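Objective 1.3, modelling of assemblies. Example input:
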Amino acid sequence: MTAPPQNPKPHFPLSHPGRRQFLRVSAASFAAAGLWPSTVAAQDMPPLKDYPRAWLTENEWVFVLAAVARLIPSDGEGPGAIEARVPVFIDRELAGDFGAATDWYMEGPHQPDAPPELGWQSPLSPADIYRAAIPLFDEWCVSRHGTAFADLDAAMQDEALTALEGGDVPLPPELRDFFDILLTNTKEGYFSDPIHGGNHGMAAWVHIGFPGARAHYREWVGRHNIPYPLGPVSISGERA
Amino acid sequence: MKTVLRLFTALALVAVLFIAGLIWIPVSRTPASEALPADWAPEPGAGEYAMRAGDCMACHTAEGGADFAGGRAIHSPLGTIYTANITPDPETGIGGWTLDQFRAALVDGLSADGSHLYPAMPYENYRLLTEGDIRALHTYFMEEVQPVRIDVPEPDLPFPFNQRWGIRALNWLILTHDSGFNGIMGDKVLDRGQYLVEGPGHCAACHSPRTAYMGQDGITADQPAFLTGGYIDGQQAPALRGPGSVIRDWPTPELTAFLATGRNFAATANGEMGLVVEHSLQYLTDADIIAMARFLKALDGQPHDPPEMTVPRGPLARPAAQADARGEATARMLTESSPDMPLGARVFMDNCAQCHFVTGRGSPEIFPALQDNSLVLSDEITPLVSIILWGATVEGTAQRPMPLVMQGYEARLSDDDIAALTSFLREAWGNDAAPVSPEAVRDIRDDGPPEARQDDGALMD
Amino acid sequence: MARQDPKKEVVIVGLGWTGAIMGMELAEEGLEILALERGPDRRTVPEMKYPEMIDELSQGERHKMMQRPSQSTITIRRDLHETALPMRKWGSFLLGNGVGGSGVHWNGQNWRPQPVEMGLRSYVTDRWGAAIIPEDMTIGDYPVTYDNLEPFFDRFEYVAGISGIAGNLNGEIREGGNPFEGWRSRDYPMPALPVTYNGAKFAEAARAMGYHPFPRPGGNASTSYVNEYGMQMGACNFCGFCERYGCYQYSKSSPQTTILAALFRKPNFSYRTGAEVLRVEMAADGLTATGVTYFDEDTGEEVFQPADIVILAAYQIENVRLMLISGIGQPYDPATGKGVTGKNYGYQITGSTSMFFRDEHFNPFVGSGINGVCIDDFGMNAIDFGAEGFIGGAYISSAQTNGQPIRSMPLPENTPEWGAGWKSAIAEWYGHEMSISHHASVMSYRGHYCDLDPTYRDRHGRPLMRITFDWHPNELRLNAFLQEKIEALARTMQPDLMKSSYKDFDSRYDVRPYQTTHNTGGAIMSQTPEGGPLNRYLQAWDKHNVFVTGAGAFVQNTQYNPTGLVGGLAYWAADAIRRQYLRNPGPLV
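Predicted structure (tokens):
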């Protein structure tokens, strides 16, 4: 089997000729069709500092950038949350149905201090929890360490997040799930399809060896104990 | 010089007289091929059945329009014509047409007023209808179809193709065969199959080649070019006999299943053939489907034992085929899933192998095989590229109710991707056809999707 | 009343598995039928098509195929003294929505109950005496036997297109199948699917311990399949996106792939989407229903749909709620044990052990909904309840259904949840883990039941259903027993690391983590009108033209996934309606 003559390259990085425009066009047409949220071509994305936020305020953005950078740090092998553009994912999720708890049952009365095993009982939506909890957590950081979370050094940030995770940062019960939501959203943004804004370049999938949206492995069922070699594909057709 | 001028003048005069003759000499209608008794009347339901066998509805019904009210666009390289309203509305349809007028439309291509029908109407084939079917159809259209008052658009054709006298000249060339049916198979069942294929089924309209003046080359079973493959609307209609026949390797039960349901062990019917199954073949009796299949097999000199049933009844479990010797190298390469595989193979793995599998052989009755697939291998690449861009639907039938839908990849694949993919498909699993360029894909994409869902579809096998 | 539509002979509430089955069976009798479906239409293309369906965030995390809790949800409390609170977002279970119901998003795992489970109270009493049944345990015998249902299990398996290998063919035990299963009159319609590496390893270890491994049966086609209606499935490609997803590849058993297109061709059948049934309306004498009132999303009005026969074919929770709202059967009262509707709510208890093999490759994304190898050596009919001190059983399996990384990222004990340690652990361990889990029965108890919540209401002002449920010591003992068996088996496989996740004896029901969507009871079938709201033909004792399908009829839950029994009971009830009720409408018992 040889490569078709018009495509002599055996490899096809994201910069493969023609892909850039294709991705831009396809993203626009998918968005127009309402099939999935609008996105832009991976390599055309603005740097995070220029990203036009849909929900988060400047202070919240600064916090989220700093927090996710500790939850999934950039050092070591594989992308960190920043390289994966997790903050973009979080902003978009908070601006959408998830952030507003559109699909959830939010009628009162609420008992936010109910036993945790009875599940979400806060009257606040996830987006409202971010909005209310970030300043309280920053205040706690200031009172404890003299500065807001984003300005702490990495070790202090980890310590503060550990306190938040452990319930040692005093938050009212309707905000008690803040750390869980933040961590869950961070991992969602890291591992979900790039159409949602995170997992930039599918790098998180490459990091663990998940083939993404390929979704057929019939001939691999009987190939026992052999590592699967082919890189991922995304919903919009990116290859890595 | 003067001589030359005189010669031209003379020739022009002859041409004018000829054309005048075409225009003003009255047309004559072919009489009934068979004298039926005066008290002859069709069996109840015979007219509707003949309509199904003749597939009148597919062309004479617009997308979303009333049955038989016409207006369906038929595209040709020269322009667009619109099918006629054949409901019995007296103003805009065929209400009040006598049997003789109706018969002339079918066998001579003449309208009630003597004007010529466009040859998109397959009167070359309907010319072979029995008088009984013609009368049954006349009764059906006059008495059983609901009249619909609707004017269909005028044809959008340039001069001289908008002049129907030109068709008269054409008819002198193409309507040379006798009207009525002449069975040559020497067997009652095979003759019935011959009749359905030749006459109402008008299979030759697509599956026979065309002569230089666009008539069908092979209208009846005794002609050597009959069903040796043709083109319709930019699609290849594959040969049904001879060494290139797509159906030669199909056992007779697979052929009957394909005709009745549009799907079998290796193929699905899309586009024009999909319409034929949807509007015509699925309504035929098992006996008629078997007769057609056996005739096609017999015509090709193949075994044609009657199958036990037209379409196998469930419950039925049929394993997906393994790669054969020709396909094994491709299947192995895809199975290894090396990141170094060529782009076309990679696009296949990311978009197509989900259903067509690395074997290229799909899953019986549901995911068509791509190996030896006439649409994949066709010189006409438009149908293949169109299906990749915009998808395809095999409508459900009574015996296989589930519509089988392939989604389009217009948004997910670039022209380069599709060129690499189609080039791969055309050389994988032992396939052997020329590669496809990104420019060719771009042109097809720029032309846009078929206006009506299946207008420009294709036979996919 | 804003609108009254022309009368139908049959109205079906919900167009999932049992609505489709009832629709087809009764359409074949020529009856005029209307099915009312609360959610949207769903077809393979476009609603489930590749690649958009392959989106873990939208389907796996945001549950876009499911009922929205904002439409309707339930409230939960663990005991009679706790205040029930609404399940505001899904967790422990996921309720389907739209045409096809939960038959669209299930994994396809399809089992029959064991014969002893159908006559459980008699089985326990005969073997060990009634004294071993705890005082608050309200188990009973189903008013129908396994032998009664066998033809109907078979019918469902052949319509639904189930792959598997028979272990008990007319009493003959067959190599490779489940030797503990009830007899079956013929083999599965399709052979079993092949299994992934984890299954092969598990099978080998189980066999070495003297157990009897077999591939899990279920509705993922191993071949192309055509059923009695000519409906078709394609051979499953192990896409790894089964549960929570619609199948883009026509290979999962669902109403869409096996019944609906054939049903929609019937001129006497029609259906409406966006039609949420609010209540069943009753005749003045209270002996029959006159039809249903539904909310029409298109027009925003309430519509009365008159009908001769009303079939409640929604999910267990909505069926029981409609019965309670409409007054079908007396509401159950746990204080007195009197009343029938809402009684014997049941669920499933599960637990699992993860095994990590640093140098082995499992490719966890190679998965199908049923992929896995099971043993039934600790099933209901294989355990000495008297000796072990509990009543119940389980099948144990090693599954590999998906490797979707947001939700399926098992990591060894003490791995950090975040930070550099987490990031390196996901690369180190993803693809190097397999698990063994149990799927166990839950008995019925006096205090586990459904009623209408006194506080919380849905968007139409109707009370939400309240579930009172917690883990009972009987099931926690069963769970501990199974943990010991699984861990012993796992240790023989010598993994580098092991991590177990089981409930302990202090565990209370936690609504947050997904467990199973196997909610049962509340509309149980019974020998007598005092025992449950339905008779043995799923007919309401007190409203003879109301039939109620689904797992609400389970007297107590079985050790298996419920769909096989749900499907079998639907065909059983449809048969009774066709043969008996249509000829002579009235109580069938």
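The helical segments of chain A are 19-33, 58-71, 86-95, 97-100, 126-145, 154-165, 178-191, 203-208.
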